[in-house]
Write a structure and sequence with these properties.
CATH topology of chain B: NADH Oxidase
Order of helices and strands of chain A: HHHHHEHEHEHEHEH
Number of helices of chain A: 10
Order of helices and strands of chain B: EHHHEHEHHHEHEEE
Strand order of the largest sheet of chain B: 1-2-3-7-4
CATH superfamily of the largest domain in chain A: Cobalamin-binding domain
Structural class of chain B: alpha+beta
Radius of gyration of chain B: 18 Å
CATH architecture of the largest domain in chain A: 3-Layer(aba) Sandwich
Strand content of chain B: 15-25%
Number of domains of chain B: 1
Number of domains of chain A: 2
Number of strands of chain B: 7
CATH topology of the largest domain in chain A: Rossmann fold
Number of helices of chain B: 8
Shape of chain A: globular
Largest sheet of chain A: 5 strands, parallel
Oligomer: heterodimer
Distance between the termini of chain A: 35 Å
Helix content of chain A: 55-70%
Largest sheet of chain B: 5 strands, antiparallel
CATH class of chain B: Alpha Beta
Helix content of chain B: 40-55%
Radius of gyration of chain A: 18 Å
CATH architecture of chain B: 3-Layer(aba) Sandwich
Distance between the termini of chain B: 36 Å
């Protein structure tokens, strides 16, 4: 149907108003909302690839994520709880570790995870280890994403892993690390589950981990 | 010790765009890397105007004898060392945070890239000013490039503690967090070594020409 193509175009163009208009039109026309959401989802994945390939700049990727969020805010209340559950790719708790106030990279990862269909609980920046764990247990998260932008704050990522082990709940969560100084060696050293260098890679990795 | 304000800077669209590209596309020099859209350029120009109204560049610097400075591997060939800190204002950071909190992610990331470029430009202009103001000291001497804590095998905590202990950085409203992060974040601290035998290539390098192959910041 033409409207599905228009949904895709709205996301690819990052046209927030059009995405909202099409979401409302889908409701008015009583379209199959799962098909509408699929169209939006296909488009946001395509945009992610365009960014990865250098076709899109970061603001264009973010504009698309904003359009996706706006459309989903209209559609989600009309999906049944079972549809929402089926569509959800998983529950994520994300934040920047205590002592670190860098927020933007983490916010972009949260935005892309949300756009792709994860339920995301963004704790913000300067978040204590205990808060990450308490929230992950409260919302029954599968993934904890923890960002640190300095070598001096990376140690907080290790503290989180150690605390999960100490509480005997390490196996309940996959832990993804983010931040400029984070390397694969660091991931292996502290026993985390992976790292990604940008929001698109983070989403791909999160999806892979949810499949295993 | 000298404090400088209103350091003139010009913002560079190419540098701002580079900060807004996927690192994958930059490193692979993707054939697909495209020119920015007119809309994106328009947004950058508009946000540059907003940024320039909020930017208040400030800097502090002084020159110290190098003989007692640690770690020795950085300073052993140096006779004197310039230490400096510069910043572009808290108001700009507050504006970026406000945009991100409101969900204006596209504008937020553009303004953040502009602020990063402004900080780098301030450091570059400050370096030129320092060198101009201290011509006599520099006569017949060699200089290193700028080097900052976290680079050149200089631990962030070690470097920041040294610079912040030597300079009264609170005079330009920059402070250090317990984790040695500068607040406002868009601030740069650095040193420049002066001497007849200093290594000119010490300092800021591109990753692909740096010998620290296991560096955490290598990309």
């Amino acid at each position: 149907m033409v409207i599905f193509d228009e949904c895709k175009k709205a996301i690819v163009r990052g046209d927030i108003e059009k995405a909202e208009e099409l979401a409302n039109q889908s409701l008015a026309d009583k379209l199959n909302l799962n098909t509408v959401v699929d169209a939006f989802s296909d488009a946001i994945r395509h945009v992610g690839n365009l960014f990865d390939e250098g076709e899109y700049f970061l603001p264009e990727l973010m504009r698309s994520a904003e359009a996706m969020k706006a459309a989903m805010a209209i559609l989600t209340p009309h999906l049944s709880s079972s549809e929402v559950e089926t569509r959800s790719l998983g529950t994520v708790v994300i934040g920047t570790i205590e002592g670190d106030i860098h927020d933007i990279g983490k916010t972009l990862v949260a935005a892309m995870l949300t756009a792709e269909g994860f339920e995301v609980h963004d704790l913000g920046a300067d978040v204590p280890v205990t808060t990450f764990i308490e929230k992950a247990l409260e919302v029954n998260a599968q993934l904890i994403c923890i960002s640190a932008l300095l070598t001096t704050t990376m140690v907080g990522q290790k503290k989180l892993i150690n605390q999960l082990v100490k509480q005997n709940i390490r196996d309940r969560f996959k832990v993804l690390l983010g931040g400029a100084p984070v390397s694969k060696n660091w991931v292996a050293e502290i026993g985390a589950d992976g790292t990604a260098e940008n929001a698109i890679s983070a989403v791909k990795l999160a999806k892979e981990l949810m499949e295993h | 010790m000298k404090i400088l304000e209103h350091i003139g800077i010009s913002l560079d669209n190419q540098e701002i765009l580079q900060l807004l590209r996927s690192k994958n596309s930059s490193s692979q020099k993707s054939k697909k890397s495209k020119e920015p859209s007119p809309q994106l350029l328009e947004d950058i120009e508009s946000l540059k105007k907003e940024a320039l109204e909020l930017i208040e560049t400030k800097a502090i610097y002084d020159i110290f004898l190098s003989k007692d400075l640690q770690p020795r591997h950085l300073f052993d060939l140096s006779e004197k060392t310039i230490f400096a800190v510069c910043t572009v204002s808290k108001a700009l950071e507050d504006k970026i945070s406000g945009m991100m909190e409101k969900g204006e992610l596209a504008k937020g990331v553009i303004l953040d890239a502009i602020a990063s470029n402004a900080a780098e430009e301030t450091a570059s202009q400050l370096t030129k000013i320092i060198l101009e103001e201290n011509k006599e000291i520099l006569q017949e001497k060699m200089l290193t490039s700028r080097f900052s804590p976290g680079y050149c095998r200089w631990l962030v905590e070690e470097g920041q503690q040294l610079i912040f202990s030597l300079l009264p950085v609170e005079k330009i409203n920059v402070k250090l967090s317990p984790s040695f992060m500068m607040i406002p974040r868009k601030s740069i601290s650095f040193g420049i070594n002066i001497g007849k035998e200093v290594e000119e290539d010490l300092g800021i390098k591109e990753c692909d020409t740096c010998d620290l192959i296991d560096c955490n910041y290598r990309r």
